[in-house]
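hey so u asked for the seq, here:
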Amino acid sequence: MNGINNQCTENGAGIDAHYEKDENVKTNNIVKKPGPLRTISWNENVEDSELDIPGTPRTPRTSTTPGHEKCTFHHDLELDHRPPTREALLPEMSRSYRLLLSSLGEDPDRQGLLKTPERAAKAMLFFTKGYDQSLEEVINDAVFDEDHDEMVVVKDIEMFSMCEHHLVPFYGKVSIGYLPCKKILGLSKLARIVEIFSRRLQVQERLTKQIAIAVTKAVQPAGVAVVVEGVHMCMVMRGVQKINSKTVTSTMLGVFRDDPKTREEFLNLVHTK
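ran it, C-alpha cells below
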C-alpha cells in the first residue's frame, strides 16, 4: 500500500476540483478571483448530477411557466407535480392501482381486493423512499479524522431495489471498499448509502456508480471500489426466465482502477467466505 498517502493532498481531495474556472467570477457586481485549484485523488470527473434523481428538472416550475399559472406548488418530477409530502400522493396512486386491477379484468370491489390499491400505493412509496433521502442527511457528521491509510471493506450489504424498466424487484448484495485519506466514515453509513440509492427506480449499473461516487463525496478517499451482485426478477419471472442467473457490476475509482494489486486485494477480500 506504499505510495497511497502521496495521492492525498494537504487540503483533502476536492470532488469539485474539475469545476474550478480560471476566469473571474462576478457576484453582486463584485469581481472575485477563484481560489487555488485543488486536486482529487484520481483522474476521474465526478459530477453531482451522478447522484441526481433521474428525471428531476434542473429548474423548478413556477407560476409563470406556461400551463402552470394556477398551480399551488411547482417542485415536480418529470412532467407531474410533486406534492409537499409523498404521502399526499396516496389517493391518486390508489386510484391508479384500482384502474390497473379493473384493466386486468378483476373486480376491485371484491373483499380480497378492496384495500389492495391503498396497500400497493403504500408499498410503492416504501420501495422508493430513497427519493426522500439525501447523502448529507444520512452521513449526519459521521465523518471522522483518522490517520489510517489501509483498506476498509464492508461486504455483503443486502440490497433491494426496483427495476425502472419493468417496475419489478431486483435484489442482491453490495460490497464497498475504500482507501482513507485522513478521513473515515462510520461503518453503518456505508449500508445507509446503499439504502439511499437502491430505494429508487434503478438499473444496477447506475446504482453501482452512484454508491461509489457517494462514498467519494463523503470522505474524499484515495480510491473507492464497489461490487454489486443482483438477481433481477424481470429475468426470472418473465422474458428468458433464467432463474439461476446473476448480474455482477463494479465501479473502480482512484487506486482501485490504476493499481492492479490494490484491486486484486479488494476482490480477494470480497470473495473470501
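Residues 9-44, 55-63, 72-80 have pLDDT under 50 and may be disordered. The first helix runs from residue 90 to 103.
lmk if thats what u needed
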